[in-house]
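Final report, Chapter 2: Outcomes

The project's central promise was a pipeline that accepts a single protein chain and returns its three-dimensional structure in a standardized token representation, suitable for archiving and comparison. That pipeline is now operational. To close this chapter, we reproduce one record exactly as it appears in the project archive, with the input sequence first and the structure output second.
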Amino acid sequence: MRHAIAYRNAARPSSTLRLAGFAVLGSLALAASAQVALPFWPVPATLQSLVVLLLGALGGSRLGVASVVLYLAQGSLGLPVFAAGTAGPAVLAGPTAGYLLGFLPAAALAGLAGRGWARQALVLAAAHLVLFVPGVAWLAGFVGWERALAAGFVLFLPATLVKTGLAFAVLRAVRR
């Protein structure tokens, strides 16, 4: 009996290995969502924030953050995973870098969504808004504060509401 338990535990991948596997899948989902892009300037509109919210809310903060870190590493190494197939360290120094880095706290916060519907709605909305803080701040260095707020935040509010609502609906459906 002890040998059967030891064998079963040995055959089970470690939690670190599982996290790594899911993070790879999460980074691929982020890469795919980046390719669904409307070419706004200076920041394209993509489905990435929706995926970031879902990775954190469904997989937890660790998985969400690990997926984003892996995604950013893939893009910085030259894999065409950023919006519209862009890649390289220049993207992480360009106008969209703050949004990309904002995915980290957004994923971490979304991981705290919990089970109650009110908490989930509030946490997802807050997580979505959190990614705009470094995004707009970084963008302001390129286009000024007024333009950064208009083109990097206000323009995205309707889509942000829709994507937050979709994330909430998916989370509620999965948690039932």
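Archive annotation: The mean pLDDT is 92.
This record, like all others produced under the grant, will remain available to the consortium after the project formally closes.
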